[in-house]
Amino acid sequence: MGHAPFTNYLWPAEFMAWLRMLGIINQPASEAKVKLNNGIEMPQFGIGTFRSSVKQAHDAVLEALKAGYRHIDTAHAYQNERGVGAAVRESGIPREEIWITSKLQ
User: Fold this and answer.
1) From CA 12, how far away is CA 79, in angstroms rounded?
2) In 3-state terms, what secondary structure has residue 24?
3) How far is Cα 18 from Cα 16, in angstroms, rounded to an integer?
4) pLDDT tens-digit profile of 16-58?
5) Residues recognised as catalytic
6) Among 59, 88, 91, 56, which Cα is nearest to 72's?
7) What pTM was estimated for this model as a whole?
């Protein structure tokens, strides 16, 4: 992830392109969904923020949202929620279109 020519915030889009190239998925991240038991559909692919600083989480989430991601995984223990929240606000995407999953510890 951190080796040239890739940087931390570009890997989500590169990963999705690689999965499409392999034929594992045949649709953009914004269209890949899984139906939950209650009938609600949630984005199948998300970006994780584990071991990211506040700035890294901000940059990665903002780029992922621009690339079509609508699912973000975070946790209070990661201590980067401010970066995640700032990226969601700055993206201009309505909050009700973004899934944020977290953990209680």
Assistant:
1) 21
2) coil
3) 5
4) 778 778 877 776 666 788 899 999 999 988 899 999 999 999 9
5) 78
6) 88
7) 0.73
